[in-house]
Amino acid sequence: MKKNVRKRKRKKINRYIPILASGLLIALTVLVISWVFSARRTYTVVILKEGVEQEYAQYHSLAQAKEEMLTQTKRAEKQNAGIRYDHKLIAIGYGVVQFQRKDCTLNTSYRMAETEETGYTNGCYGNDAAFVDISDDGSEVRFRQAGVDGWAVVDEVTLHNYYDENDVASINHYTATSHLLTHKITTNIAESSYASELSMGETGLKDHAYYSYDGHYFYSTFEDMIDDYRKGSHERAANKEAFYNYYQFLPHRSISRYAADDINWYVENYLGFASSSQSLLYDSGAWFIEAQKRYGTNAIMMFALAMNESDFGRSAIAREKKNLFGHAAYDDSPSQSASGYKSVRESILAHAEKYLQNSYLNPLSDLYHGGFFGDKAGGMNVRYASDPYWGEKAADFYRTFDMVMQGRDRDISYLVSEQPVTVYSSKKKDTVLYRAGAVPCSHLVLKQEDGWFQVRSDGPVHNGTLQKNSSAYGLKNAYGFIQEDLTNQIRILQ
Question: Which of 148, 305, 310, 393 is the most buried if burial means most Cβ atoms within 10 Å?
Answer without folding.
Answer: 305
